[in-house]
Amino acid sequence: MGKKIYLEKCAACHGETGEGMMGIYPALSGGIGSLATTTPLRTVGSFWPYPESVLDYVRRAMPLNAPQSLNTDDLYSVVSYLFYMNHIIPQEFSLNEKTIHSIKMPNKDGFINEKEENINKNTPRDELRSRLGICLHP
To answer: Into how many domains does the chain fold?
Structure first.
């Protein structure tokens, strides 16, 4: 069901396989392991640290031409398909409000909380970003 919804509501902008379109609409799949390289690809699979964040973003902002138009079943179906495209869950996984918390995103540990004691407060944010290839939380 998620693939059908994706092809109807998402593929026009993000491509049939989530590859992105025309340099305007971002890729949604691929890029795992690329964030620390010189050519990072920020996708659902490579960048987002929490599955709930993906669900919330899609719920609030997508599809671009009709945000907040997906009903709950369609929302979970299309997000499930995004996770499947990124090899995060198997095809038969049933995504819902209970199972979403069990998903481990590939970049789960890629964000740094600056309040953690192991961060050198004297290291500039840009230097940390370039060294680690990750996003820093405020």
So the answer is: 2
Q: Is the pLDDT of residue 118 over 90?
A: no
- Taking residues 6-16, what's their average pLDDT? 97
Copy the structure tokens of residue 134: 């990750």
Q: Are residues 56 and 101 in the same domain?
A: yes
What CATH number is associated with residue 56?
A: 1.10.760.10
Q: pTM above 0.90?
A: no
- My answer on whether 73 and 97 are in the same domain is yes
Please write down the long-range contacts of 69-78, taking CB distance under 8 Å and 24 or more positions apart.
Answer: 70/5, 70/9, 73/1, 74/1, 74/5, 77/1, 77/2, 77/5, 78/2, 78/5, 78/6, 78/9, 78/10
Q: Side chain identity at 75, as an amino acid letter?
A: L
Residue 127 belongs to domain spanning: 110-138
Q: Supply the pLDDT for residue 131.
A: 58
